[in-house]
Amino acid sequence: MTDTIRPTRTTASRYGGRPTMKDVAARAGVGLKTVSRVVNGEEGVSPDTGRRVQEAITALGFRRNDSARVLRKGRTASVGLVLEDLADPFYAPLSRAVEEVARLHGALLINGSSTEDPAREQELVLALCARRVDGLVIVPAGDDHRYLAPEIAAGVATVFVDRAPGLIESDVVLTDGFAGAREGTAHLIAHGHRRIGFVGDQPHIQTASERLRGYRAAMADAGLPVHEPWITLGPTDPARVTAETWRLLAGPEPVTALFTGNNRVTVTAVRVLAASGRRVALVAFDDFELADLLSPAVTVVAQAPAQLGRTAAELLFRRLEGTEQATQRLTLPTRLLPRGSGELPPQD
Amino acid sequence: MTDTIRPTRTTASRYGGRPTMKDVAARAGVGLKTVSRVVNGEEGVSPDTGRRVQEAITALGFRRNDSARVLRKGRTASVGLVLEDLADPFYAPLSRAVEEVARLHGALLINGSSTEDPAREQELVLALCARRVDGLVIVPAGDDHRYLAPEIAAGVATVFVDRAPGLIESDVVLTDGFAGAREGTAHLIAHGHRRIGFVGDQPHIQTASERLRGYRAAMADAGLPVHEPWITLGPTDPARVTAETWRLLAGPEPVTALFTGNNRVTVTAVRVLAASGRRVALVAFDDFELADLLSPAVTVVAQAPAQLGRTAAELLFRRLEGTEQATQRLTLPTRLLPRGSGELPPQD
DNA sequence: ACCACTGCTGACAACGTTGTCCAGTTACGA
DNA sequence: TCGTAACTGGACAACGTTGTCAGCAGTGGT
Asked: How near does any CA of chain A get to the CA of B66, in Å?
């Protein structure tokens, strides 16, 4: 008995019973292609036939299988976004902005968090390529993106955001972290500070090292020496940052001001400053909610994460629409928002 | 001349030049199926052949087309998440948790923000169904989900989170907003407050009305009257919440304490309280970053958004693995975190 | 020498959709 | 009345992959 194997079926059975166009066609008594025409709103179907087909569609609960459509058409109407951590208050609005632009172009967003791990970044990106996303927006974790070369050659539009790609040519949208950090640090110097601590992220992260460069540049501009112990770089986990911040505040010649390199570092540093009871000035890179309500309110060098995401997504879709110009590198400025903490005078 | 039409091709040409298994097979001098076997790590390929195929794969930069695979296999290894706003500090960790669980199950996450618009929720959900996601996690915006019936019947696993679905049976994971709001309000009453304001979200949102119910229950428990002007419900935009909060603080018998219904409302209310200079007690539903650093630190009824997401995702994958038990309704408890603002005594 | 068996390999169909092309029907002017 | 154009509908192939099955060599036992 083999008659139960591969029976020709007219009733839906796979996908737990998902009807196909064939099923709809059978029910409406029309041809397959006619159903396709109705589903896609193509012309050339009489109103009467159209109505019969529509009825069959609702009766069966038919939904077009986009996988098959993609296979046939070659476009998926979806873009991928890979970033460090979707829940990070800096990246969440960025992601949201990309989603919004994608929606305007009728595309869905698939995203993944790399957790700052280059291997995972690559894994995610390639998984997205396997799904044939039309384009990719990437906040890179690694610094070697040669693995993307075949994909880009195959036509996957790619835009990097917040950090530049490594060993590969591509569109990039960045924030000017160097200028921002320089301005923020200069602000502290202008308020009389000479011993300024820098609490940053891991040095191999581009944005982190750019900001450090800005700090050094501002100090150099003012002719101030930088004592290396004033600088602490590394993972942003609260334990490390707490310990290091305390260290900067201790000793015979403690820092009188802090420049914090990103929002995660900032919240931890703020906690330490509050606990220490010292009036240490603070300028933070990256704005955060309620910064204005702390006492003192926190002076920040604000980035525009949503604008970053929007710009990148728009660039991506411009590429998808066929722009063939050379790859671009856009840089968005930061904005210094004085709120109080950055204007505290030095206290020795 | 029609010989340029539909030429049989051995070299890749579509997708901007993406090689297929056929191309790999040709280059390696083997059959199509053998390439498939190698790509999927199936056994039954001699080491020598396997090596030749691997070389061809890397030489051509081949990447399996998952769309075609999905079409053939019926499973996409992707799940959809629809929520209100990805960038909301409450939903971001929820989303992240779902992503994490999905990753453990080898699935990707596709998400969309409904912006609290039922039509957009439906549009997104159906788009995800058309892509044949294996399952859906939904934070509903609407209150009628009958449109999902055919999808669920067709085998799309569905779990609702944070709010229950309408007119449909499904798994749900909720936070006990009623109990949480009741406890928070009771906390204020225990500290001597009699006139307590409630600043909430739009009343048609389940979580909002549940929390209001909890507030009323606590007042009733204590035998206290509720004056309706103490209650304000509506959109959470800062303008409205600011105006309404000022209103609650005005008049001959102003409230001496506030209960705020969600994190967006809370930050606005905190701003107003700070600006007013009044010592009004505050208990907020939903924890938020830096709540402990404000002065006074904000007492909150904390939810566990990540746990909510994780629980929902785990339930989803249990379904996908074939659990056939009746639909479940899980409720997670809240936790009252006294920090100062909720323990202020009444000041008239 | 033959057979049974095992281990590799490839031909072929099918997944559900869309593009191409052709056939049938109707309407209209010559 | 016929020819022709306009319109409607359907048969068929193709997209790139995987499941089924059959064939082919090599091996070992009789």
From this structure: 5
